[in-house]
Amino acid sequence: MALEKKKLAAISAAVFTYIKTEEEAAFLASSADQNQEIIAGQTGPALNLNIWGTAGREHQMQLRSMIQMRVFK
Q: CA–CA separation, 31 vs 15, rounded Å?
């Protein structure tokens, strides 16, 4: 029982770290795009990323794979 909790905690930590890394990468890419537009003299819409939508979809896929692996009994 304790081992399962440790595994679940490790998986959760890994997922949160991955999501945080992706959010930071998206932010840096967005700011880089804005900087390039300023340098080029263009004023257009920046790259719109739906981070919450992406994270939600990722969570759904992870939950489905965990169910398929029969993690929850």
A: 24
Tokens of residue 52, six digits = 């919450």
Contact status, residue 46 vs residue 34, Cβ threshold 8 Å? yes
Q: Are residues 54 and 22 in contact, defined by beta-carbon separation less than 8 angstroms?
A: yes
Please report, as a single letter, which amino acid is at residue 65.
S
Report pLDDT digits (tens) over 5-43. Answer: 888 888 888 888 888 888 888 888 777 666 665 555 555
Give the tokens for residue 38: 């300023």
Q: At what angle do helices 51-68 and 2-40 cross, to 10 degrees?
A: 150
How far apart CA 5 and CA 9 sit, in angstroms, is 6
pTM of the model: 0.41
Question: Across the chain, which distance is largest between two alpha carbons, in Å?
Answer: 60
